[in-house]
Amino acid sequence: MIGTRARFSQRALSLRGSSLVELFLLARARGAVDLAVGTPAFPVPPGPLIDAAVSALRTGHNQYENPNGEAALRGQIARSLSTPADPDTELTVTAGGTEALCLAVLATVDPGDEVIVLEPYYENFIGAITLAGGVPRPVPLHRPDWRLDPVALAAAFGPRTRAVILNTPSNPTGRMLTLEELDEIAELCECWDTTVISDEVYARLVFDDRIHLSVADVPRLRPRSIVVGSLSKSVAVSGWRLGYLRAAPEYTRVLRRVHEVTTNGTAAPLQYAAGHAAVLTAEWWHPATELAARRDMAVDMLRAAGLDCRPAEGGCFLLADISGITGADCHTYVRDLLDERAVLMVPGTAFFADPADGHRYVRVAFNRTQDTLRTAARHLLDQGAAPCLASP
Question: How far apart are CA 243 and CA 98, in angstroms?
């Protein structure tokens, strides 16, 4: 009998698994307080949205939908945007923001092309670039406030630069890019004829009277930009897998072709529900104010435990510096914290190209109930300094 040996593409073998899976399963088995995974426990999905989904299932919206996306949902997305978009030629509904990101990269990047990412970054950016055969070019942001370095950014561009991936508000830092920073990016993208892929899934979750600035709001970037959006966090339906792409018609035509050969669409009844419940344009749906209060609770908790962190400008994550309380690396700290205090955070190395650059950080999700955050604070603070919180 002739033996067989499985053969895999180099792209697939180069993909890294999620850094969260092992820790998440361990934390669940121990009943730990999960401040790691971004799945929202707050806000809760709007009641009218759930009712609309049940109605859609019962009234026959259970077959294939237009691959471009259900018409009412595309209309709702268009009306929710700060700069108008044509729902017929510039919007595509996807299977979550993850598919939207992969489509954007696959549609613009060939093997060997370079893609700039601002560091720290959401780890799926690197996976999407790798899957397309691209080469990531990380550009470190200035610490501690994670500001763009114009000199480092300019040095990263070259003849093989095909795309820049942005994230505003950012996972993991919570930073929002300013108009000045976007203008600097626009100038370089015009010079090198580069596409901007902007992950804006937290656009509706911004705090302290800030206004989210999309790349589509910047005239110099709009014609060369692809915006990734999602309902997962903004209306708390991450399991529905409803995302979207916003791009100029010439981009959208290609994006839709890639979309058709990957997923060919996402759940029809859930699209119908989101479109007809009008949650994206509803005046009664304003979760950001209450989420900001939870951010403040999390910041106070972390600072009281000796960690250094800046309040997020948007999104649902904080990136905290542990170096003031321990000389251990973040993986040791996270493991000890889980063992000794039953609280789970994310090691910061997942967000940096060189793990050494992230060893002093942990990421904390604050889109939790207030009771969960109070429980986490009790675990962290009530019993004094545990070994994992003390300097060696």
Answer: 8
What is the β-pairing status of strands 225-230 and 195-199?
A: parallel
Residues 285-305 pLDDT 10s: 788 999 999 999 999 999 999
Could you tell me the CATH number of the domain that includes residue 230? 3.40.640.10
For 4, 173, 241, the CA distances from 237, given in Å and listed in that order, are: 43, 22, 7
Cβ distance 256 to 92 under 8 Å?
Answer: yes
From 277, 296, 325, give the residue that closes a domain. 277
CA quadruple 14, 19, 20, 26: dihedral, nearest 10: 110
High-pLDDT (> 70) share of the chain, %: 95
Write the pLDDT tens digit of every residue in 107-145: 999 999 999 999 999 999 999 999 999 999 999 999 999
CB contact set of 384 (below 8 Å; sequence gap of 6+): none
DSSP letters along 270-300, please? HHHHHHHHTTTT-TT--THHHHHHHHHHHHH
The three-state secondary structure class of 86 is: coil
Contacts with 288 (C-beta within 8 Å, 6 or more apart), sequence order: 204, 205, 206, 207
Contact predicate 142/149, CB 8 Å: yes
Rg (alpha carbons) of the chain, rounded to whole number: 21
Write phi, then psi, for 90 (nearest 5 degrees): -130, 0
**Cα distance between residue 264 and residue 349, in whole Å:** 35
Does the predicted TM-score (pTM) go above 0.70?
A: yes
Name residues whose C-beta falls within 8 Å of residue 390's C-beta, 6 or more positions apart in sequence.
325, 326
Are 268 and 360 members of one domain? no
- HSE (CB half, 13 Å, CA atoms) of 323? 10
Here the tokens at position 285 are 């749906």
pLDDT value, residue 23: 73
Burial of 114 (0-12, 13-18, 19+ CB in 10 A): buried
SS3 121: coil
Q: Which of these ranges, 36-45, 129-138, 206-215, has the smallest mean pLDDT?
A: 36-45
- Measured torsion, CA atoms of residues 348, 20, 246, 142, in degrees rounded to the nearest 10: 0
In a shared domain, residues 309 and 331: yes
Query: Is residue 369 located within the same domain as residue 227?
Result: no
Phi, psi (deg, nearest 5) at residue 374: -65, -40
* Count of CB atoms situated within 10 Å of the CB of 178: 13
